[in-house]
Design goal:
Elements lengths: L1 E6 L3 H13 L3 E3 L6 E4 L11 E5 L5 H6 L4 E3 L5 H12 L4 E2 L1 H8 L15 H11 L4 H8 L3 H15 L4 H10 L6
Parallel strand pairs: 1-2, 1-3, 3-4, 4-5, 5-6
Helix pairs in contact: 5-7, 5-8, 6-7, 7-8
């Protein structure tokens, strides 16, 4: 059970935070010796606690992290986000809102993932051999390369085709017309 203390100047905010903590499984409210302090107080009013979850402005996120704050949430954080941040902080992890991460890092937190390029001619050779059911060791022998290199090619094929298994990669390869069976 994670013991949580709530600190907020605004009585309505304090009651709301206490209600969130009370309703959450695995969390209990306490007034002394908390595992986690949930606070909306400015940084100069922080009370010492093992882990602190702050709810407030992202402008001073970096300073708060240097002070040992484990989680920083925006004022409009949901109950699930607050409970998740408390659990993360109690477990020694940090939790940040993506917009605050952008402020700290200086670039967007969510970058679009570039599409992997097309398969190389060597990867196509390996994919064809996979379709024939040939083992890595035999592929290496046939292509006169190391088994390690074959494993690298297989990993590249899986990534480029967004496949989880060799069989799935072969199926995708057939659908895309990369290999004929």
């Amino acid at each position: 059970m994670i013991r949580v203390q709530v600190s907020a100047r605004d009585p309505l905010l304090r009651e709301g935070l206490e209600a969130v903590i009370t309703d959450a499984d695995g969390l209990s409210l306490t007034q002394s010796r908390p595992d986690v302090l949930v606070s909306s107080a400015p940084r100069d009013e922080l009370e010492p606690a093992p882990s602190i979850v702050m709810i407030g402005d992202a402008a001073w996120s970096a300073a708060l992290l240097r002070l040992g704050v484990r989680a920083i949430l925006p004022p409009d954080a949901s109950a699930a986000e607050i409970v998740g941040a408390v659990s993360a902080a109690a477990g020694g992890l940090a939790a940040l809102d993506p917009s605050q991460l952008e402020t700290l890092v200086g670039e967007p937190a969510m970058q679009p993932v570039a599409e992997p390029g097309p398969l190389t001619s060597r990867e196509l050779e390996v994919l064809r051999m996979l379709a024939d059911g040939i083992a890595n060791k035999n592929i290496a022998w046939n292509l006169k390369i190391s088994e390690h290199t074959v494993k690298f090619h297989v990993a590249q094929i899986l990534a480029k085709l967004n496949a989880g298994t060799r069989t799935e990669a072969v199926t995708i390869g057939i659908r895309k017309g990369l290999i004929m069976v």
